[in-house]
Write a structure and sequence with these properties.
- The chain is mostly helical and about 150 residues long.
- It has six helices and two strands, in the order ααααββαα.
- Strands 1-2 form a two-stranded antiparallel ribbon.
- Strand 1 and strand 2 form a beta hairpin.
- It is globular, with a radius of gyration of 17 Å.
Length: about 150
């Protein structure tokens, strides 16, 4: 396979992967889109942050993040708290319900990945993992982003 053909195959397969991920998100939890799941995960990892930080981190439009945040607040999955260092700033945090749902969805996703990758040789899994890390750390992305 030539390099140009390989890049086309990668693009096609990554698009397929993204479509499958979006479709499966709704099956894992009906109220939790893939974007919502990603935002909840980031809030957990960062122990809370501002909505503008979420938008910047994921290169999303502020209005998109605002709609997602509003929906997550209505669902009782996140709450705003005043920043102790700057009372003008509102920091988003997971609620107990948000932590429970995130844990449930994360476990369901982990199970789905294990099932999909069952039968892969350990060396193939290790290479695939390294390639994904390398891809995601490419130009314009921090090595630990997303």
């Amino acid at each position: 396979m030539e390099a140009a053909e390989a890049v086309e195959t990668i693009q096609r397969e990554m698009t397929s992967f993204a479509r499958r991920a979006r479709a499966s998100a709704g099956r894992l939890h009906p109220e939790l889109s893939l974007v919502s799941y990603t935002l909840l995960g980031h809030l957990e990892e960062s122990d809370g942050c501002r909505a503008t930080d979420l938008a910047a981190h994921y290169a999303l439009d502020k209005s998109t993040v605002s709609r997602q945040v509003a929906a997550l607040e209505r669902a009782g999955l996140i709450a705003r708290r005043q920043d102790p260092d700057d009372h003008r700033v509102q920091v988003l945090h997971l609620t107990d319900a948000g932590q429970r749902i995130l844990a449930q969805v994360t476990e369901s996703r982990r199970t789905a990945f294990h099932e999909r990758l069952a039968g892969w040789a350990p060396g193939d899994l290790e290479r695939f993992a390294r390639y994904l890390v390398r891809y995601n750390a490419g130009p314009g992305h921090a090595p630990d982003a997303d």
